[in-house]
Amino acid sequence: MTAATTPKGERRRAALVEAAAKLLVEGGFDAIRHRAVAERAGLPLASTTYYFDSLEELVTAAVEHHSNAELAAGRRRLEELATRNRGVQATVDLVLEMLLGPETDDAEADAEAVLLRYERLVATGRRPYLRPLMRTLSAQLDELLTEIFARSGTPVSADELERLVALVDGAVVNALIAIDPAPRAAASRMLQNALDGT
């Protein structure tokens, strides 16, 4: 048994992954550096290279950790949706939470978080090592979104789901280009209109 597979080693590795995931959300891929991750985790600098063969491996673990946490939160929210209000707005809110991240009370901070999320998504394309993971995570997200729509009484085909996600992405990007302080609201309007059939 190596030190990396002991309970203490597993805790340290998990702390590094969680620290890297937080840095990813706060500052994108460029924020994940060995020193920054170690400092955030409260561990020695050498621990990042001890537990991870490369920075790419650490970045991949951070992306997977963050995405899995979001998917798990979405599944929990879906269970709530099944027992509470299943109206169009509740569906829109949950879909946007999965696509844009959880909404914050501060409109400016929420818009910044959405911008950072889209910057991360675009930057993923410049990292070929992430492509296999992103394909897997994308398929899992599509499954969850399909289930959200089905349980909300609005089942969608794979093509319809792709169109709705593209509609949200387009609304967000247009809002960000126009320096709209509320890209989530723009996406919500577009998605609500699409689901209402207007």
From TrEMBL:
Gene3D superfamilies, per database record: Tetracycline Repressor, domain 2
Keyword line: DNA-binding
The keyword DNA-binding is annotated on this UniProt entry:
yes
The source's superkingdom equals: Bacteria
According to the entry, DNA is bound by residues in 33-52
Q: Where does the HTH tetR-type domain lie?
A: 10-70
SUPFAM superfamilies found in the cross-reference section: Homeodomain-like
The record, for Pfam families, names: TetR_C_31, TetR_N
Q: Which PANTHER family match?
A: HTH-TYPE TRANSCRIPTIONAL REGULATOR RUTR, TRANSCRIPTIONAL REGULATORY PROTEIN (PROBABLY DEOR-FAMILY)-RELATED
Protein name as it appears in the record? TetR family transcriptional regulator
**Organism in which the protein naturally occurs:** Amycolatopsis iheyensis
